[in-house]
Amino acid sequence: MDEISALGPADEKLTQEAAEVAVSWVLAGELTHEQSQQLIVGDHLGSHNWMGEADWVHRWERDLREALTTATDSQEGRQRVAAAKDTALREMQSHLYFELDWAGWLGPNPGYQRVCASLRRIIATGRPTAP
Q1: C-alpha to C-alpha distance for 30 and 77, rounded to whole angstroms
Q2: Phi-psi bin for 107: left (phi > 0), alpha (psi -120 to 50), beta?
Q3: In sequence order, which residues have a C-beta less than 8 Å from that of residue 27 and are 6 or more positions away?
Q4: Separation of alpha carbons 101 and 56, rounded Å
Q5: Within a 10 A sphere around the Cβ of 41, how many other Cβ atoms?
Q6: Are 100 and 123 in contact (CB under 8 A)?
Q7: What is the C-alpha to C-alpha distance for residues 100 and 118, in angstroms, rounded to an integer?
């Protein structure tokens, strides 16, 4: 994703998979408190940083949900929904990648490992199952 990043293809794949799961959660309905907490993956030392990321997750979900609920059942509406999904996926992957890159700037360290573990938990939780 970034030519000056210390991350590799496996890290990019990890962020892509976690972002896909996150988008699937929103498509299935509002994020639960637990899901919202899981998406706060940064290695945050202070509550101010944690609150900033929690706010980002909330705004990301709100923007996607708004696009989904305001779309009409028409070709244009379906195109807007598809574009909103693509945008949400790209934004979440970029966000997760940034958090992983920030934590891993100096190479594999405890912060990097914690963010990787958070991403793996998101993936392990998985996509919602149809009733």
Answers
A1: 20
A2: left
A3: 68, 85
A4: 18
A5: 24
A6: no
A7: 10
Q: What single letter denotes the amino acid at residue 65?
A: R
E-state strands within the chain: none
Q: What are phi and psi of 92, to 5 degrees?
A: -70, -45
* pLDDT tens-digit series, residues 54-84: 899 999 999 999 999 988 888 998 899 999 9
Kindly state the DSSP code that residue 97 receives in the 8-state scheme: H
Q: Check if the beta carbon of residue 78 is closer than 8 Å to that of residue 71.
A: yes
* Burial class (CB within 10 angstroms; exposed 0-12, middle 13-18, buried 19+) of 39: buried
109: left (phi over 0), alpha (psi -120 to 50) or beta: beta
Helices and strands in the chain, H and E counts:
5, 0
pLDDT of residue 61: 95
Q: How far apart are CA 111 and CA 56, in angstroms?
A: 20
The gap from C-alpha 116 to its chain's centroid, in whole angstroms, comes to 13
Q: Does position 50 have pLDDT exceeding 70, yes or no?
A: yes
